Structure formats: C-alpha cells, structure tokens
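job 3f2a | input accepted
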Amino acid sequence: LRELLSSLCTSPEDSAILERLCASVVEADENSFQFEDTSFEYVRGGQPIRSDALPASFAEIALAVRELAWDGGGPEVGFAITEEGQSMADGEGFDYLGDDDADAHQRICDAGGCQPAFCYGQNWTFFDPTRQLSNGEPALAFISHEGGGWVEVKSADALNYKQIFLRMISDAMCETDFLPELYC
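job 3f2a | predicted structure (184 res):
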C-alpha cells in the first residue's frame, strides 16, 4: 500500500495518513487491500495522463493508480480515469441540482459548467468552476442524492487532488473525518 500510494503524499501530514492506512491493512493481494470493515480494489497506473479538462494534480493520481474503488453502500466510490484523460465519475447529479437548487445550477452553468471528479456512491463530486483550491486548481463540490444543493468542500481548499484522494481513502478505510462535506 505504501508503494502504491506514496506518490499521493506531498506533506508530512500526508505521509502520516498513509502510515495509518498501512497499519490498518489486515490482508492484501495482487489487486486489493482489505481493512477491518471494507476493502478497495485497484488497477495500477504508471503512465502520465494529460488532459486540459482535468486539474493537473487530479490527473497525477493516475501515475499511482488508474482506478481505485470501494463499496460505498451503493455504486462504487473512488477514482478512475480514461485513456483520454477524463474522469470516469458519473455527472448525472448536476441534472438533479437543477431541480433542487435552480439558482446554484444556473450559477455553475454561467461559470462554464462543471466536470465530474471522483466517483462517490449515490452522490456526486464535481470540479467547482466558481472557486479555486489554494494551488489555483478548481475546487471540489458535492451533491447528495438526498438533495441539499451544491456543497462547497471547503475542508479540501488547502489541498491538491492527490491529497484530497488520500483523505477520501482514509475517511472510508480508517473512519477519519478529513472531508466532512463528503459522505455516502
């Protein structure tokens, strides 16, 4: 696990999160890691994926893993990227936003629309075209299938997407709460 995800670490805190993940593994095989209550499966990355449609730090995740997913109590949660450099996350939640919060939907459309980011169970994450992470990349937003509108994931604003993904994994596998706006 350390070898697989070490490239996601860009700070001492990231390394500590990875060490906690490593210590929580109860079983491993060629394409999966089992934790106490759940597991994830992955496909190794290794080849650079470039796309103007994705933030650079998001695309860099594919250097470690092309796909990494776990059961989120519905559809899988995680990361997957196509050969063309597009996120494989489902973006249908943005259509629901139009029904739940027409003002937010229009504001995002006026800003150029949004691209789906991470797969997130029966919920959705998007690159927010109206805000930026501290590194200048588009920020992250969340839409729940239960309604509630466009939720800015402000807990991730000081991170890059490699760090965000590492924390998503930790929140799922170790029951941490680094990104409280995201839930399945």
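job 3f2a | The chain has a mean pLDDT of 92.
job 3f2a | closed
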